[in-house]
User: Fold this.
Amino acid sequence: MLIVDKIPQAIQEMNALRHPRRIVGLVPTMGALHEGHLSLVRAARLNCDVVAASVFVNPAQFGAAEDFDHYPRNLEADAALLEKEGVALLFTADPGEMYPEGYATFVGQEEMASRLCGGSRPKHFRGVLTVVLKLFNIFRPNVAYFGQKDAQQVVMIKRMVSDLNLAVDVRTMPIIREPDGLAMSSRNVYLSSQDRRDAARLYRALCAGREALAAGEKDPGRLVETMRQVLGGGEIDYVEAVDPRTLLTPERVRDRILLTLAVRYPGARLIDNMCLNSDGTETLC
Amino acid sequence: MLIVDKIPQAIQEMNALRHPRRIVGLVPTMGALHEGHLSLVRAARLNCDVVAASVFVNPAQFGAAEDFDHYPRNLEADAALLEKEGVALLFTADPGEMYPEGYATFVGQEEMASRLCGGSRPKHFRGVLTVVLKLFNIFRPNVAYFGQKDAQQVVMIKRMVSDLNLAVDVRTMPIIREPDGLAMSSRNVYLSSQDRRDAARLYRALCAGREALAAGEKDPGRLVETMRQVLGGGEIDYVEAVDPRTLLTPERVRDRILLTLAVRYPGARLIDNMCLNSDGTETLC
Assistant:
């Protein structure tokens, strides 16, 4: 596995790997890799001829009061995992390589960026879309893999790809969960052991919402109420049932519905979601 | 010359024209073509193997009170001119093809977009950058041609290309002027005959600034003052002397300087500029 940390070098190496009959897959990550990330790499390996991955903790998607400085970083362990999974090229860069002095260009989706996680993280999705567009331009992948865990991110990236006429096939892979249902996240390590146990209620709340939907409940407000009851106390950032294309709450569940929530613990803010068909079966954004 | 008005068709035709040993040139325009546009096409024909052009009056770059509805349109004449110049593919589209329902993604450069023309046209450059990025993604040109006439646009597009790691070589071509010095513009037809005569003072003001610089004047404020004196009355939107990389006024002229101005006439708002080396010789942004 080649490891490069400069953009021109990444472009050059990708051009050497590229071939009209080769499908190039990209797995963009912020590192601190867990089984969720590895499931993306495995899907890419299965469906692509060349797989590139990036490990870049993107400062543009962190707010001033957020955990950029303390976000877990372990490049050596990440590189070993990616090499074992058959990644051909790993790109990792300093913030200054991606955002050099005088950097000025950002991609945004104003309305969608203000919803759900955007409510408490106002510039987050602008940072996400910008870095993803840069990575797409550097790697020019045929296929890029993202996790359903970050559902709003997936929805907005798919919207960007369509709006900006990008030739990238964005594929969403299912959430990978711990035995108690907690969605895997690089930030789970920052939970106290008590909060770690408590955090299983996020998944239980989503399951309750799914069961209510399967039992015929088509009112988004009542689905949210069901989830809130199971979720109980704690500092809830949001609990919503939205249309996964628009991120707006529909009047009734007619088509797919995204149950999504965010809860703050002292150690970490956790998010989780389920994207469901109207009969309650699981699907992906 | 092939004329296409749907994005998938443009992508398909460009893929058929593309070849590893062929240089693809793109000339994006809003139509109502004059000798300024044609100079871009001729440069593209000289330096590229395949030349594509677009004629699209981009609603996203017009403000609500601006002249989108009245912007001159003459597709038939434009197509005849482009065919004569050897353009291989002309792309023209309805606004709904470029911005379908649910469209949400825009590219911006907040600080630079608020300067110069951005002062009176707050969303203009967001619209410009977005449509240019879309056209770059649809056509994937090796080289794209823009006129020095829209200097701020060129500076911001070059900044976008660098920031977003796009593989496009942006080339700036000199302003083409009428015999009295007025920069060619699709909007000149909307000037009354008296204002058309009067408008030659824009170029005279720039010439005075250039002469002052060549004579050793390195104070941007005094260059602006010189230009304002020649410009005289009328509704001046701005007159500035800025660093062509940042669009900020430097303390002293040390390197290149962009003399740039905008004046409102009842029929049209006119812009003009000169990009100069510190010795007063002309260069391009």
The CA atoms of residues 177 and 237 of chain A lie 21 Å apart. Chain A has two domains: 2-173, 186-283.
